[in-house]
User: Fold this.
Amino acid sequence: MMCRATKLFCFLLTAFGWIQESFADYKFLSGNPFEVQRRLIADIRAGGVDASMVDPAVVDSTTKDSFFAATPARLAQLGQLSKVCLMFGVKYPASRALVFRTIHENGCGDWVITTKETPEVLSAIILIPTKLLPGKLDTCGPPGVVPPVPAGGDNFLLPNDFRCRTNSEISSPPSNMEELKTACRLFPGMCPNAH
Amino acid sequence: MLISRRLVSLGGLAALCPCLSAEGATPTAANGCAFSQAADSHDSNSQYPGLRRWGAEPPELALAPIVIEMSQLFELTPVFGFYDDTGSCKGNALASSEELFPPAPNAPFKTEGTVLLGEKLFSNLNRAQYQTAAIAAVCAHEFGHLLQFKYLKSELSRIRDLDGSVVRVELFADFICGYDAGVRQFRQGDYAGAIGALNQYRSGDLVFGESHHGTPEERGHSVTAGFATGSKGPLPPERIARLAFEYISTLIPQAVHGDGC
Assistant:
């Protein structure tokens, strides 16, 4: 019941294993994913990621131009970073993917950050830039990319909602449960924990 | 890089799922779509005001994992989009076997049909508690119509003609809506699947006639029947379509025509 009430928070804890204290390296799972994403962008802009902390493929994806690459030139086109939104995450057997949308002065970046669990090492970075909508400063067009749902979907968790969550909102109190209580009263068979 | 090959381009998924069939279904009550008997020889795009592809606002990212999972579960890859449904009371959604948008360039798969969500409906769902389950329920209902188009078109048309109403066609889609919630809850114990039943219950109507979608009780019961099936785990799409058809085949609607008293 507790987990139901704090669904999003539980989702983030279980899917991302977030522990606020750790900030070392590019530890999206055990560190603060917002801070790590900001630092990752800064490092790429400053000349490159720390190659000792990532898979070789990640270095390539931040240096060699390609459709999905997060190169300094592409980040320069996006301009100054204003906001990092964590949209959702996907849990795979030995790794996890975090989907971010970053808001910049000239557009948005849709990111899929894939990291192994043990050791916690970045294994892939995808960036798809998207344009700001006409007349908007913080709203972009269609989502550029999402990670695949794991086969069977057993470890794929749907968060309670998908709005842009910033660092300050990540542990916000859960919404109330009135709707679910009403639903479970009418359809108790669909609420196994409600009995 | 393996992951980049496996990534799904949402440009390719950005398809609609209006409830229109090749026979020309028309949107009617909230959260549903209906077959119509009229021939659909017109330019289908022109009948949807404000038609646009999915994804113009960030909250629509919510659709991404929902649609991808349902595409896998039902083995269907519709295009999703939006239209202006402000003319309806509660908002609306539709499914169509037609492609209402030009194909996305370099799409990694062939699209099958279209799902359209009304702007008003989506806005309401997006503000709802348990937003994910609410949006997923509507999408699953529309996927239910796509399953009809693919596997049971003639059978469902026969039932619709027999009833003189889309009521059992809609209850079929509600069964699929419940099935999807059951599968999701099978995979994720704390998923709020009952929200879908509540929303379909609230979308029930007592306006009997050819556009009647089912009473609140009928809609809620259809969702729970599908849920019971899905909560044991996923089934092949054609199998679940036939189970839904079996369910509605034996169903006697409370009323189809008349005042329902």
Observations:
- The longest strand of chain B covers residues 79-83.
